[in-house]
Amino acid sequence: MTTSFLPPGAYRPTNDRWGTFSRLAASLPEGSVAVVDRTVAKLHPTLISTLEARKPRAIVQLVGGESAKTFTALEKVLAASLSMPRSGTLLAVGGGTVGDVSTVAAHLLKRGVRLVQVPTTLLAAVDSSLGGKGAVDLTVKGRVVKNPAGVFHYAEEGWLCPEFFSTLSETQVREGSLEAWKMVISLDATLFRRYVRKPPELNKLVKDARGLKERVCTQDPYEHQGLRRVLNFGHTFGHVLESVSRFKLSHGDAVGLGMLLALDVGRLLGVTPEPVAAQAEEALAQGPGVLGRERAAALLGRAPMKDVVTLLNADKKAGAKGELRMVLLTAIGATEVRDVAESSWRALWPAWTKGVRP
């Protein structure tokens, strides 16, 4: 079946277009709806006027961050899009949270409309803006649980506009780089060796990461075969750190620390050889600049254990006995999914809360 006959949101190969936003926006159909990160609109004053020139039905501005991934924000996007026909286009201009809620909205509107992703952060560019996944958060027992309610809805195009990356902070560049290095460490040993010798320029990092993720998603577009679990390397405890920080710790930084903890679990279980763990940890420190273990210790040390268990059970619970289904490194470029008993990760807790490598 050719892609022209696929319903909106169905899997299709990534269609990336690079260029300035004004040039790419010229192809946006009139009568579309745009969802825009408010901060991005302020940093790039011509963005809104460029969109207005395309006579959109609505331009919805959201505050980026986890507040964008709520049912309240989702309802705002849906309400502004009611007049859009099923043949319409929803344009998401922002970081991962704006992209997430826009993906869910595109899936629900008229039972599916065309989606175009315009990632404005490095993290969204290398990861969340492709792969078809979108989700919103829920609050469970007073804690925000990430992504329990979501959809698969693939974008028909991804617009990569380097001008948006020029206004990113050092923190934003680091967190996007950590997600990109996550894919390199877990998927491509050859590329890892090149990166260690000479870290790539930003545009090359984006292209490489998107290529690696596309390679995985092509084989398992809807996560039916479990092949996409590799992309969750570092996410199990990363999501816990993110949540117990009340999202003051950015997602990319949380995943970076989560990778360190996953390396510890792998070494404990004999899955990750010691030299591999040491090589990966050193690369994360020297390349993208993973935060120190003391940051994880500060967060975990003040988190009630019952809250941590609740978050893990809600996020990655795998079995009836509460095992975690974790992605563990077996070699650079290779991983294995293991069910990890609570007693195993609890054995590492004393070292984690002291900020030392077990």
UniProtKB/TrEMBL annotation:
InterPro entries, per the entry: Dehydroquinate_synthase (IPR050071), DHQ_synth_fam (IPR030963), DHQS/DOIS_N (IPR030960), DHQS_C (IPR056179)
SUPFAM superfamilies given in the database record: Dehydroquinate synthase-like
Record keywords, A-Z: Cobalt, Lyase, Metal-binding, NAD
Cofactor: Co(2+); NAD(+)
Keyword Transport: no
Heme recorded as keyword: no
A GO MF term: metal ion binding
GO terms, biological process: aromatic amino acid family biosynthetic process
CDD domains: DHQS (cd08195)
Pfam family, one: DHQ_synthase
Domain 3-dehydroquinate synthase N-terminal: start-end pairs: 61-174
Residue ranges of every copy of the 3-dehydroquinate synthase C-terminal domain listed in the record: 179-287
Listed transmembrane segments: none
Protein name as catalogued: 3-dehydroquinate synthase
Organism per entry: Pyxidicoccus fallax
